[in-house]
Amino acid sequence: MHGRDPATGLDCVGLAAWALRAGGFAGDVPTGYALRGGDAEKVAALLDAVLIRADDARAGDVVLLRTGPGQLHLGIRAGAGLVHADAGLRRVVLRPGDVSWPVIGCWRMGD
Question: Hey, which residues does 106 pair with through a beta bridge?
Fold first, then answer.
């Protein structure tokens, strides 16, 4: 949790930040959040402040998901699925196919 370095480990926020930085993003990355109990509206507002909200996810977009009761998760949409930090596997993985969790929203960097 709170992993920010690909060499030592990334959580879902760290993964999203790393991907956005690869695209030129230089903003601050939130810290101090809990594993459960996230406020979807608050997280969406943070994303709205630095990215453009999109109606549908395309490759490279940050996707905010509800993976369980009181549990939010970020991933990066890929053409073949979703890249995300899988806590159970303790690694970043490509989950092929459609996203099975409810999608709260998706965001992208400006063109």
Answer: 54, 63
Q: Could you give the C-alpha distances from 91 to 8, 31, 36, 45, 99, in angstroms and in order?
A: 10, 19, 19, 27, 18
Cα(94)–Cα(84) distance, integer angstroms: 7
Give the span between the Cα atoms of 93 and 73, in whole angstroms: 14
Taking alpha carbons only, the member of 20, 97, 106 closest to residue 55 is 106
Residues whose CB is less than 8 angstroms from the CB of residue 15 and which lie 6 or more positions away in sequence, other chains included: 74, 75, 76, 83, 84, 85, 92
Q: CA–CA separation, 89 vs 95, rounded Å?
A: 12
Gap between the Cα atoms of 94 and 92, Å rounded: 7
Q: What is the pLDDT of residues 43-101, one digit of tens each?
A: 898 888 888 999 988 999 999 999 888 889 999 999 889 999 988 888 899 999 988 89
Tokens encoding 69: 């009761």
Which residue in this structure is represented by tokens 């969790």?
101
